Structures are given as C-alpha cells and as structure tokens.
Amino acid sequence: AQSVSQHNHHVILSEAASLELGCNYSYGGTVNLFWYVQYPGQHLQLLLKYFSGDPLVKGIKGFEAEFIKSKFSFNLRKPSVQWSDTAEYFCAVNALSGNTGKLIFGQGTTLQVKP
Amino acid sequence: DAGVIQSPRHEVTEMGQEVTLRCKPISGHNSLFWYRQTMMRGLELLIYFNNNVPIDDSGMPEDRFSAKMPNASFSTLKIQPSEPRDSAVYFCASSLGQHTTDTQYFGPGTRLTVL
Asked: CA angle at residue A44 from A39 to A48, to 5 degrees?
C-alpha cells in the first residue's frame, strides 16, 4: 500500500533560520506530490505541487520543494522562516495509476517559529 | 467564491446519537472528498465522489458511516450511531475534476466530539 512518511513531527526554529522538512513516499510508479499547510485555526491550503518537469518546485510564501525520484523524497525548504510560518505542514502523494484523485497524506509536521 | 463550506463547525453529541455533517463544494467543481483528521491516524480519505457518484469509499471505517451527494452542490456524511472514537475533525474538499493534477481545496472542517 502507498504510504507517506514525514520524519519530523515537531520542529522548533528561531526566526530567520532555514527550514527543511522531510517527506518520503512508498510507491514505485509515477506520482504527483503536494505540500499543504494548515495555519492555526484555518483549513488546509496548498503550498506547492509537483507533477512533472523541473524537480525543484517553487510555491507560495517563499517555500520550495525538491523531488528526488531515486530517494522517493519531496522535501520542503525555506531559506529563512518567519513567525507567521508557524503551522502544520502535510506532504501528500497521488499515485498516477489506480485511484485517481486520491491523496495519501503524511502524519504532518508541526512547525513552531519563535520570534 | 466562498470556498468549500462546511457545517456545523463544531458538533458535540452523545454516544449513540446520529450525526450529520454537511458540505457545499466550490461551484463548478466535480469532485468532492471527505477526510478525517485525528492525532493518531492523521489525515485519512474516507470517500470521494466524482460527478455525484461515489468512486472510492474504501476509507469509510464501517457501516456506521455513510455519505451521499444528491446533487453537485451538496454532500452529507452521516454517522449512526456515533461512538467516542469517532471524535475527530472532518474535512470536506473539492476539486475541478478527478485528475491527479487537480488541486483539492479544503473546507474549514467540522470538529466532532462524541461523549
């Protein structure tokens, strides 16, 4: 079965620190990859997504993610975090064969940015 | 557009009672998804519809759960009878289609507490 693993459950950073959140998936075929963010008290919003082409994807608010097929990874990065980045971050995978539209989410990573 | 609308935002009920959660997808979107979020299991897809037809209900926990989409602008998720272990946040999401590249837009969620 497909699965998504986010290694960091809780990350605490100071403002201006660099961020990298890990995401690995288990599926041997072609995938679409997503990062969603959930700010406190708000619903999930799409940060960025990868379908094909350049494996380095840029999203909103200065976030980017790199798809490394050989490592089955899609890590999220931001060079300098802000207090407003405090949120929960979810990686999600959609396998291109079988169930269309079905997203498999990771457990989520809570990011706390200290001012 | 108002985005995905869910009601109620909070529901507190007693074990054994029937609970109905409601969702209005974004106008023009043809796919609708119901997710459940818990601390233990994270975000899980329960069921999704395309053009009002259930496509994948493999995530529905058991017969106590049922979902309907009588028309393109309304869906319900019903739990009967409810149990304390059903306590979770239930999210509805919609997308333009069921293609794997279609972004899912999430509603604010319904926080269900079963006493």
From this structure: 100
**Cβ–Cβ below 8 Å for B108 and A42:** yes
**One-letter amino acid identity for A101?**
G
Alpha carbon of residue B99 to chain centroid: 19
Q: Does A107 touch chain B (CB under 8 A)?
A: yes
**Number of Cβ pairs < 8 A linking chain A and chain B:** 59
Tens of pLDDT, residue by residue over A52-85, are 899 999 999 999 999 999 999 999 999 999 999 9
Contacts A32 to B, Cβ<8 Å = 100-101
Bridge pairing between strands B65-71 and B53-56:
unpaired
Q: How far is A2 from chain B (nearest CA, A)?
A: 13
Nearest Cα to Cα of residue B93 among B101, B103, B105? B105
DSSP E strand boundaries for chain B: 5-7, 10-13, 19-24, 31-38, 42-50, 53-56, 65-71, 74-79, 88-95, 105-106, 110-114
Residue with tokens 């976030």: A63
Q: Tell me the nearest-neighbour CA distance from B10 into chain A, angstroms.
A: 12
> Contacts of residue A102 in chain B, CB cutoff 8 Å?
45, 48, 56
The fraction of chain A above a pLDDT of 70, given in percent, is 94
Task: Check B31 against A99: CB less than 8 A apart.
Answer: no
For B103, which DSSP code? Answer: P
